[in-house]
Fold this sequence. Notes:
The complex is a heterodimer of chains A (376) and B (475). Chain A has 10 helices and 24 strands. Chain A is of the alpha/beta class and 376 residues long. An 8-stranded mixed beta sheet of chain A has the order 6-7-5-16-17-18-15-21, with helices on both faces. Chain A has a 6-stranded mixed beta sheet with strand order 9-3-2-13-24-23, sandwiched between helices. Chain A is globular. Chain B is an alpha/beta fold and 475 residues long. Chain B has 3 domains: 2-127 and 273-343, FAD/NAD(P)-binding domain (3-Layer(bba) Sandwich), CATH 3.50.50.60; 130-270, FAD/NAD(P)-binding domain, CATH 3.50.50; 381-447, Arc Repressor Mutant, subunit A, CATH 1.10.10. Helices cover 37% and strands 22% of the residues of chain B. In chain B, the strands form 6 sheets. In chain B, strands 1, 2, 3, 4, 5, 6 and 19 form a 7-stranded mixed beta sheet that branches. Chain B has a 5-stranded parallel beta sheet with strand order 8-15-9-10-11. In chain B, a hairpin with a 4-residue loop joins strand 17 and strand 18. In chain B, helix 6 packs parallel to helix 7 and helix 15 (396-403) crosses helix 17. The longest helix of chain B is centred in the last third of the chain and has 19 residues, at 345-363. Chain B is globular and about 65 Å long. The model of chain B has no long low-confidence stretch (mean pLDDT 93). The chains are: A alpha/beta (376), B alpha/beta (475). The A-B interface holds A 38, 40, 45, 151, 154-155, 170, 227, 229-230, 254, 257, 259, 275-276, 278-279, 281-283, 285-286, 288-290, 295-304 and B 87, 89, 105, 112, 114, 406, 408, 412, 415-416, 418, 421-423, 425, 454-456, 459-463, 465-470, 472.
Amino acid sequence: MTVLGCDVAVIGGGLHGLSAALHLARAGRRVLVLERSWVGRHASGATAAGVRTLGRDVAEVPISLEAMEMWHRIEAIVGDGCGFHADGQIRVAEFDSHWPDLLQREARMRALGYTHEEIVDAEELRRLVPALSPHCVGALVARRDGAADPHRTIAAFRRACEAAGVTIVEGCGVEAVERRGADWLLSTGARRFTAPVVVNAAGAWAGRLAAMLGDEIELGLKASMMIVTERLAPVLAPVVSVVGRALSFKQSDQGTLVIGGGLQGSADLDRQASRVDFATLARGARAAVDLFPVVGDVRIARCWTGIEAKTRDLLPVIGASPNQPGLFHVFGFSGHGFQLVPVVGAILCDLILEGGTQRPIAAFAPERLMPARAAA
Amino acid sequence: MSAVDLLVVGAGPAGMGAAIAARRHGLDVLVVDDQPAPGGQIWRAVETVAATSRGRRLGTAYQAGAKRAEAFRSCGATYEPGSQLWQVEPGQVEPGQIEGGFRAFLSREGRARSVRAKAVILATGAQERPVPFPGWTLPGVLTVGAAQILLKTADEVPEKPVWIAGSGPLPLLYMTQLLAAGGTIAGFLDTTPSGRLKAALPHLPGALAGLGKLAKGLGWTLALKRAGVPVIRHVTELAAAGEGRLQTLSYRTEDGSEGTVPAEVLLVHEGVVPSIHAALALGCAVEWRADQQCYAPKVDAWGEGSLAGVFVAGDGAGIGGAEAAELRGQLAGLKVAAKLGALSEAALAAEAQPLSRSLARELAPRPFLDALFAPRPQVFAPADETIVCRCEEIMAGDIRARAMVGRPGPNQLKAFTRAGMGPCQGRQCGYTIMHLLAAAQGRPVAELGFYRVRPPLKPVTLGELASLDETEAAS
């Protein structure tokens, strides 16, 4: 039986797996990406592809700002613009009662030395988003934020990986794992792969994979729902969210409206399937037509959910396994991982090649979600 | 949220038959249909048209629909025309609700609501098989079915002579109806390949039980001959061209002869395929029907699919025609009544027996007709520059170019190219894409499966979905 050997085996062909593979291959490593179905099948292909620093958890802000700098030169990194437009992200205060939330957030960010989030009044908000209902009172804005095209992004990362020498094996779910000396031996059907280093980038299934690899990590699930409408003439350029409601609203390059915001459908890990819950999704539609009255007659073309891992503190898991040498985890982005893709690949590369990173990632350590060791 | 015993989707022959049968045994039945009046496509507008001169011109088979509509109107089912069913899903067991069953989401007059039902009969009928060829998206090119609807509902007869291109009973029927209505036909490009009659002949003995149907087809052909309609046989390729709308039509036949003619209206038709999106969305298993070149839900003799409590009746379960559809609707309606305890097994068997016998008679000519009118191979292999996905304007060449990268299936290809992502949800491009992929990858089309169907089934508006939030909160 042939066994395919490499330096690093990345399990999971989503965007984070591809980004890690890309950075490692460019650093001269032989990298294999093992993907159970096809590249970008789940969360990466189902995302609204928001490129957002706005409103991030303070622990994520430094890497998110670096990622944003990378997005602004994404074509130089992956050879394609990924459909990224920096038309801003805007968090709207609909009523006066929402205003203090935004003011406090801005003050806190300034106190920490960050200036990328900016308060704008009703007049400036109207200038930025003329289609917005006039009852809104103001907003918090990150002007360099924006959104990309998820399918173009997946295609670009895939092509860049392959150009850098990454081997992508689709239709290849890892079924068994064992140690062979310093190597991991990964099996799927009749195929075998060995690598001294394994990256667990298995998204919603990463908790199960971690358990196979010897780490117990507490992990929940998300199945965020999305609505895409028919195409229409330009309505707005920035991505708009709103305080107190589950709404994210943007218009794609194709002219379709893409409406999300984290309303949850249901998901089934065993069947690799998720389902839209329309009674809940109706709240998203309600929010969309309340904020943008002009879209009431726009027809919905399709709705979907994607399956993704969610952590207790909604921060990702990025780091080396404390138990298993040669095992690295990258998953659990809890619905906001798309923007972090370029930088997290670089972080994995640091961790694997240098044994550490200058970037602040202590808050993402896998240990925080692992059971405490019994006292000796 | 309201609750009923049985939800029937569609008020054509199958839906009306199902509702009447179920009502006879006292079930609480809701029938929703997106048309403004009962009859489906076959008996469209029959209540107002049957007794008029237009009705007489459309023929006795059409006029017969009036009685069915009358019986349906008086059967006691709640009938909601102008309703769009945009999602139906298996229900969860919730306190105070009917156990299990289904939850359907509808919109009507701009308002959305949901309904619970113990059983669902999908009687959503068929759609014309899309026929991609260069220029098929030009104004002036439409389908025979669409033209026939205009004839039935509005007595609309094209002013200029029309070209008809295609194969099957519908073009023949439409042409005789059009002539009777005073229309003129520039010519009929018959796309039935040579040798089809020979291929169909082995099925003829079985078809004789449905002799009347075959005689009717022969009668249409003779009527066209008498009227002097020019017929060009064994047409393989079509191309429509024009600035902004159809101006010329080019064709090529099997023996290589070609022609280009001025044309203002071209009506095409290459048979019909079941509408399976609702069944797919519910998760019902479908199977490839090599005899009809389409997918159809797997159903038992009663029409029950792989998901218990979901029935598919009529052409949506495989093409059988209007009379068969009505019988299949009745059988499904009776079986639901029996499942819900309104009818004993013995009574069910007794009532079903004559229906099953009639159904067998109605379906007898199908293998003959399916073999005779099987779509020509060119329908599935359009030239590279032909648009195959109209919503996203994707050409056959784009699909062929991507077919070999990682050997994708239809759902991967959707992400790669956006084909099938538009508002029609693959109803127009589905089969063409499957065939292009299969040919490029050298595997049987039946192996590829179909698109995963994303909700909603109908393009409900944001405002309608938003209204559901209010109605749900109030109930």
